[in-house]
Amino acid sequence: MYKLGLTGSIATGKSTVLAQFAALGHETFSADAAVHELYESPASAPIAAAFPQAVRNNRIDRRALSALLISSPLRMQELNDIVHPLVHTIILDFMERATKKGARLIIVDIPLLFESNHTYEFDGVALTWCSPEVQKQRALARPDMNVEKFNFILAHQMSQSEKKQRADFLINTNGTLEETQEQVARIADLCLARSKKPN
After folding, report:
1. For strand 55-56 and strand 59-60, is the pairing parallel, antiparallel, or unpaired?
2. How much is the pLDDT for 199?
3. pTM of the prediction?
4. How do the domains of the chain map onto residue ranges?
């Protein structure tokens, strides 16, 4: 099995690329989706305890939490210290289940892969990237996004140029969906060629 990590800065096309890998029939996992579920599950208790101002109807209100972090940016690390270990456990469980199913290629989307201190023993890492202009345009088109929040998120992410130096595969998402799909299919083929067939 080939374990591929997928990462990239905000609004560089990670979700689109992950969906394209899934459309090819591969096992995929989204850390963002896992965090969404955590915020609405009993596992959110440590987050609620640390950030009670962000709790609404026994759930973590992402908008309130975001506003709190923007006003107190030093608390971002506190949140990461709570969330990352929880997501790490969920990812390891996903990998174990995929291995038992005999998957030859799995893709795990972790936006802060390079920024986190966790290792997942990936066989390779693919990076989505685009121009700063396209990135900003995409980000500001999202609901509840504004320039202040966008700049705050960027400030807590490694630069795209540094991420490029660390990645094994680069996926340029500046172009059309079809052009992105071609890159995804090519990378999937390369990973499958390198994968270890299940016993």
Report:
1. antiparallel
2. 43
3. 0.92
4. 2-194
